[in-house]
Structures are given as C-alpha cells and as structure tokens.
Design brief:
The structure is a single chain. By secondary structure, the chain is of the alpha+beta class. It has a domain at 47-150: Sandwich (Jelly Rolls), CATH 2.60.120. It has helices at 3-18, 26-42, and strands at 45-56, 60-66, 72-78, 82-93, 96-103, 111-114, 120-131, 137-147. A hairpin with a 2-residue loop joins strand 4 and strand 5 (96-103).
Length: 150
C-alpha cells in the first residue's frame, strides 16, 4: 500500500470510527466493563451473569435460577435510544408467573435486589417502556451479581 493511501486512511480514521456511533455496541461493552470493575473491585460482589444485546419494543425475557442464601442484584442500562427501561421479576408458582419485584422508575438504568427464600427459577423481563422519538430498537446491558462467598 502506498504511503499516500496510508496517510489518507489515517486522516479518515476518526470519521470512520464515528460512523454508526448511534448504533455501536462499543459504549454498552465499555459500560459493562465499568460495572464489573465497580462491583467486583469496590463492592466485593461476584458477577454471575451478564449480557449485552439489542432490545426492541417487544422487550426481552429469560429465566435464571437464583439460589437460596444469596442476595442478588439485577441491574440493566441502555443507550440513549431508550428513555425508560424497566425490570420486572417473576417467580414460577405452579406454572403461573407471579410478579415479585420491579423497578419501574422513569430512567434507563433499572435495578432490583432479591433474596430468594428458596432456590427457584425466576423470569427476568426487561421492558423498554419509552423509546426516544423515532426509535424502536436500542442496545442494552445487564448484570446479575451477588456478594462474594466468605
């Protein structure tokens, strides 16, 4: 490759890196890293699950076994395309999902704390309640953590 081509690419690199910034997952991954460092290094918590993905107006839900004897924190966050993201936590009661907790504050960084009385399967639902104007999808990150064993 000629020196002129390399020079032009170096000059254009900042513009290339900014292209698609609104739809990039880089910010979410960076935030996840910051949360991991904060939780593990400053609060002595252990990350037991984390994920990052795209979320649409349908929201997303998944199940997770939470164990008796632990206090769990579940927190999520989104990029600027969501104005209000909620977490709703359900427990299975004979095949019916019963709500046990929720964070429905008007923000895009919900969190809940749960201390299961028994080891059970929980349904965790992320609901993008309000999207910013003209958006129907966004990136989110989520972390489930508990205290370190003694």
């Amino acid at each position: 490759m000629s020196k002129l081509c390399i020079f032009i690419m170096v000059l254009l690199l900042p513009l290339i890196l900014l292209a698609g910034e609104d739809t990039s997952m880089k910010w979410i991954v960076s935030e996840l890293t910051d949360y991991v460092e904060f939780l593990e290094e400053l609060l002595d918590q252990e990350i037991v699950h984390m994920q990052a993905d795209i979320i649409t107006t349908d929201g997303i839900s998944f199940t997770r076994t939470l164990h008796q004897g632990w206090t769990y924190g579940i927190m999520a966050f989104s990029d600027e395309r969501i104005e209000d993201l909620d977490i709703i936590l359900y427990i299975d009661d004979d095949g019916e999902w019963i709500e046990v907790d929720r964070d429905d504050e008007v923000d895009n960084y919900p969190s809940v704390i749960i201390e299961p009385s028994e080891t059970e399967v929980y349904l965790i639902e992320l609901d993008p309640y309000i999207f910013s104007e003209d958006y129907e999808a966004a990136h989110y990150g989520m972390v489930i953590y508990h205290e370190l064993p003694e």
